[in-house]
Amino acid sequence: MLTALIDYGSGNIASAAKALGRAAGDASGQTITVTADPDLVRKADRIVLPGVGAFADCMRGLSAVPGMVDVLNESVLKNGTPFLGICVGMQLMATAGREFGAHPGLNWIEGDVVPIAPADPTLKIPHMGWNEIELTRNHPIFAGLEPDANAYYVHSFEMKPSDRGHLLATTNYGGAITAAIGRDNLVGTQFHPEKSQAVGLQILANFLNWTP
Predict the structure, then answer these.
(1) ∠ CA 94-193-198 to the nearest 5 degrees?
(2) What is the arithmetic mean of pLDDT over 121-137?
(3) Going edge to edge, which strands form the sheet with 157-161?
(4) Theoretical Cys-Cys bridge with 168: which of 68, 80, 160, 180, CB 3.0 to 4.6 Å?
(5) What is the sign, positive or negative, of the torsion defined by CA atoms of 21, 79, 138, 120?
(6) Residue tagged active-site, from 103, 155, 166, 192
(7) What is the signed CA dihedral for 50, 55, 57, 60, rounded to 10 degrees?
(8) Calpha distance 165→181 (Å, rounded)
(9) Domain map of the chain by residue range?
(10) Could you report the per-residue pLDDT of 47-64, keeping only the tens digit for each?
């Protein structure tokens, strides 16, 4: 089983690759490959898209890899390859990002990426540190987690899906903000599983064994 971790210059590649490797463990036939090769992504059994920074910069970086967006659309939307987006990699699944203007995303899950607006004005932006994962519905990638599981977040914007049925989890930061989204073979986490210790490794292992 080949998992392609896409390197497009906008992700925390080293720590994501290390965490995925640990999550795969000694499982026979599990291979994690960091790649910017669309042909290899097309052959992958699973795809992971990380992302750190501004929405527009990340979308620009992804689009700058020749053929990558076309292959992602083919593999994920047409062929149903399981897909995990992390942080801005999750946000890129949206229709648009509203950071420094309006910028089109992949439009895989309808909705916008908007600034976090805590009800408590004393809360600092970015939202940074450990916060809970509050499930809004069950999903296989969260199997085995304790009810009070926490994960590590670093972000100033959140994905607001148009269909609340695509919201998998929230976290509380002056009100509920999006922690995870998903539909069909797509899933995304606003938090960083690669930085979330045992909880993150469990989520990554669940993804590597997920058959939508």
Answers:
(1) 155
(2) 95
(3) 103-104, 96-97, 111-115, 157-161
(4) 180
(5) positive
(6) 192
(7) 80
(8) 9
(9) 2-208
(10) 999 999 999 999 999 999
CATH number of 2-208: 3.40.50.880
The structure's pTM equals 0.96
Q: What is the DSSP string of the chain?
A: -EEEEE-SSSS-HHHHHHHHHHHHTT-TT-EEEEE--HHHHHH-SEEEE---S-HHHHHHHHHTSTTHHHHHIIIIIIS---EEEETHHHHTTSSEE-SSS-EE---SS-EEEEE---SSTTS-SSEEEEEE-EESS--GGGTT--TT-EEEEEESEEEEESSGGGEEEEEESSSEEEEEEEETTEEEESS-GGGSHHHHHHHHHHHHT---
CB atoms closer than 10 angstroms to residue 109: 23
Q: Convert the pLDDT of each residue in 132-155 to its tens digit.
A: 999 999 999 999 999 899 999 999
Which of 87, 99, 103, 158 is catalytic? The answer is 87
Amino acid at 44: A
Instruction: Tell me whether residue 58 is one of the annotated catalytic residues.
Output: no
